[in-house]
């Protein structure tokens, strides 16, 4: 039983890893960031490239990916998203376009392949990242075999969640973000520089996605399309948990992860996914604004 | 990362000339060359694999042209992009056959795309050369199948696993579509015939990459061997999770039917070391012909680390089978090619291949490879000679009782 719960926990933590960045950008800024999955993909490619070019290990790739994707997020916010605040459907389309551009950029090696220039590690092919030996295999805990790499993912997710919580609830910047989540106009009236805070929030959310990408590169294939399906999973968690609620995001990812694992063990993975979607539909039917949401004003 | 200006200008000039050519309607060239189609995904999710296959075809054509062409005429390839979408495949197949008046198309990779173009080839009387190993259960007078069918991957594999590896309990796992399900059908028969049993038969969505639950099920099942019909990038996540959950290929080997040099390179060879795959061709086949093939392919795609694998080899040699058929009949019509190709033999990089006179599938040599730490396989077992393709083996087809004959499918046998 413990091992099933552990699998559920690890599934949940991967969901949370993807959803965390989405939750704060969607919650704070009302931006549906369809390029979020591509941030995950670029994080994974940072791990691939830093392995090839810098001979860096997976651990070093984590801060590296955070910085790279956060800067890219900042750029996207400055160039495109900034001009579209308050236009939900427009941001959806624009970020979707950005997602396609980013995918193609990686596939065409930033366009260099047109000139016959090949950048090792990029391109249309499948890539992989070496997992350090001490993270491979299993260890025994209370009579169950526990997977080392997944434990590592859970630990990293926990650390990131804690850091996010700390920034949101224990710093001045976090207070400003929370004020903007509640009421952006009032926050602006109180002297908060909404544009600057939004840019920082977007960059931070992108950075989290980049770290998620590094984590995923350890057990998934790295290729240009890998991010596309993840956005759906991320939004599933955000919507179920309640927009803008960190606690709701954590709880719903854990819940959906455990449901997935339990149903999959009892039946199969295909049915499990259907059941998870069924639960999400039920939740938003009963509580349209998610499990934990702020009261509207 | 060398940027050669002259090379770029040359490419650009050729490309613009090629684009301008149809507009000019240059008759002299069009009349001379024999046109064939290459219909593969150049874009989209399947392009990774299918571009390689297109390269295999292009390389064969380049070699044929360098050696004087077919019937003294150069071969010109009209490349179309199937865009990883069966509907686009069928549109482009119509275009190649109707607009370009092409009677032979090399192409398609997935069964979905092949099924989508099949009616067009049959109705319009053109020939498709299809190189990928597939589930069988098809009998068309308009397709030459140069890849393996289930009996050519499994008929030596299952008995070998039971006898030589001493395994008795199979866990069958696959992606959820027709190929893995048909492979499972054939393997269940063979497993029972070999005196072993299967404890589970499980499927995951195509492209699924979360293997935690499945691997834990395999662990609990009491199976002593895994038969994997998993395809695509799911394979990589599967082997990685298998090792990460502490399972060892020595105790519980994965015996696969799809995992090739491509996936091994993509997952990192250490994750697959010790596992097995059954294919008629492996990159490691140690013959001068194969070594030369690998060298030529690497030069052709300008990548010194490029890998070759079963479908690529088949994509390459099927062009030569076509050439021989055309030269035998002296005609380019589908009927002539079909007549010419029956029983046609060619020395492929992996050994002798023959087109079966009855069902137009190829006689291939089943081989079992064990993956090594360097990402290459060691051939641990092989048939001494190519064996007959039986596309309906899951339904009881045997060499003495053919379902698919030169007259077409005997549907009565399928029901019985």
UniProtKB/TrEMBL annotation, chain A:
Key words, A-Z: Amino-acid transport, Cell membrane, Membrane, Plasmid, Transmembrane, Transmembrane helix, Transport
Give a single Pfam family match.
BPD_transp_2
What membrane topology does the annotation report for this chain? Multi-pass membrane protein
InterPro entries of this UniProt entry?
A: ABC_transp_permease, ABC_UrtB_bac, BCAA_transport_permease
Looking at the record's lineage, which domain of life comes first?
A: Bacteria
Q: Give the record's family classification.
A: Belongs to the binding-protein-dependent transport system permease family. LivHM subfamily.
Per its record, how is this protein called by name? Urea ABC transporter permease subunit UrtB
Q: Which gene encodes it?
A: urtB
UniProtKB/TrEMBL annotation, chain B:
GO biological process per UniProt = amino acid transport
What is the annotated signal peptide range for this record?
A: 1-30
User: Source organism's superkingdom?
Assistant: Bacteria
For this UniProt entry, the molecular function terms from Gene Ontology, in alphabetical order, are: amide binding
Alphabetized UniProt keyword annotations: Plasmid, Signal
In terms of SUPFAM superfamilies, this protein maps to: Periplasmic binding protein-like I (SSF53822)
What name does this protein carry?
A: ABC transporter substrate-binding protein
Q: Which organism is it from?
A: Rhizobium leguminosarum
């Amino acid at each position: 039983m413990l091992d099933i719960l552990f699998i559920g926990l690890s599934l949940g933590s991967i969901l949370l890893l993807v959803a965390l960045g989405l939750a704060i950008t969607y919650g704070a800024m009302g931006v549906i960031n369809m390029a979020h999955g591509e941030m995950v993909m670029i994080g994974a490619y940072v791990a691939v490239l830093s392995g090839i070019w810098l001979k860096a290990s997976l651990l070093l790739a984590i801060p590296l990916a955070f910085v790279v994707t956060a800067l890219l997020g900042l750029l996207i916010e400055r160039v495109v998203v900034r001009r579209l605040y308050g236009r939900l459907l427009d941001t959806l389309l624009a970020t979707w376009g950005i997602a396609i551009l980013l995918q193609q950029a990686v596939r065409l090696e930033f366009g260099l392949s047109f000139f016959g220039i090949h950048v090792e590690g990029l391109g249309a092919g499948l890539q992989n990242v070496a997992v350090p030996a001490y993270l491979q295999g299993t260890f025994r805990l209370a009579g169950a075999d526990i997977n080392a790499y997944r434990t590592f993912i859970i630990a990293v997710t926990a650390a990131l969640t804690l850091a996010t919580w700390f920034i949101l609830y224990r710093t001045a910047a976090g207070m400003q973000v929370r004020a903007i989540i509640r009421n952006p106009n009032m926050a602006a009236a109180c002297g908060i520089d909404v544009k600057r805070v939004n840019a920082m929030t977007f960059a931070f959310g992108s950075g989290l996605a980049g770290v998620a990408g590094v984590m995923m590169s350890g057990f998934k294939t790295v290729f240009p399309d890998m991010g596309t399906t993840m956005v759906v999973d991320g939004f599933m968690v955000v919507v179920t948990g309640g927009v803008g609620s960190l606690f709701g995001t954590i709880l719903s990812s854990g819940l959906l992860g455990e449901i997935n694992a339990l149903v999959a063990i009892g039946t199969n993975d295909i049915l499990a996914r259907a059941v998870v979607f069924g639960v999400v539909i039920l939740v938003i039917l009963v509580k349209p604004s998610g499990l934990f949401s702020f009261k509207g004003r | 990362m060398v940027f050669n200006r002259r090379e770029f200008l040359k490419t650009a000039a050729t490309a613009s000339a090629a684009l301008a050519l149809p507009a000019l309607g240059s008759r002299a060239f069009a009349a001379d060359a024999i046109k064939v189609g290459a219909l593969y995904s150049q874009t989209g999710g399947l392009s990774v694999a299918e571009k390689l296959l297109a390269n295999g075809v292009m390389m064969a054509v380049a070699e044929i042209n360098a050696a004087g062409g077919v019937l003294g005429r150069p071969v010109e390839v009209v490349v179309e992009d199937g865009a990883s979408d069966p509907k686009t495949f069928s549109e482009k197949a119509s275009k190649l056959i109707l607009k370009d008046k092409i009677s032979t198309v090399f192409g398609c990779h997935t069964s979905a795309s092949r099924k989508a173009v099949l009616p067009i080839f049959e109705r319009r009387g053109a020939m498709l050369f299809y190189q990928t190993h597939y589930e069988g259960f098809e009998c068309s007078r308009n397709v030459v199948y140069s890849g393996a069918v289930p009996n050519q991957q499994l008929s030596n594999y299952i008995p070998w696993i039971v006898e030589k590896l001493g395994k008795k309990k199979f866990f069958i796992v696959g992606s959820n579509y027709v190929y893995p399900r048909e492979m499972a059908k054939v393997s269940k028969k063979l497993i029972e015939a070999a005196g072993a049993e299967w404890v589970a038969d499980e499927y995951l969505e195509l492209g699924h990459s979360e293997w935690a639950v499945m691997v834990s099920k395999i662990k609990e099942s009491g199976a002593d061997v895994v038969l994997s019909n998993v395809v695509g990038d799911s394979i990589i996540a599967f082997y990685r999770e298998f090792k990460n959950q502490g399972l060892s290929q020595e105790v519980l080997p994965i015996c696969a039917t799809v995992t090739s040099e491509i996936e091994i390179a993509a997952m990192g060879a250490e994750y697959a070391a010790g596992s097995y795959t059954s294919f008629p061709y492996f990159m490691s086949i140690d013959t001068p012909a194969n070594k030369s093939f690998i060298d030529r392919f690497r030069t052709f795609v300008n990548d010194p680390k490029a890998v070759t694998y079963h479908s690529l080899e088949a994509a390459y040699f099927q062009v030569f089978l076509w050439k021989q058929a055309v030269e035998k009949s002296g005609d380019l019509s589908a009927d002539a090619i079909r007549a010419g190709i029956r029983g046609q033999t060619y020395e492929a990089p992996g050994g002798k291949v023959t087109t079966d006179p009855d069902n137009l599938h190829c006689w291939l040599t089943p081989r079992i490879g064990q993956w090594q730490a360097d990402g290459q396989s060691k051939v641990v077992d092989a048939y001494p000679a190519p064996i007959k393709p039986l596309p309906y083996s899951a339904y009881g087809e045997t060499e003495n009782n053919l379902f698919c004959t030169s007259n077409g499918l005997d549907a009565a046998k399928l029901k019985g």
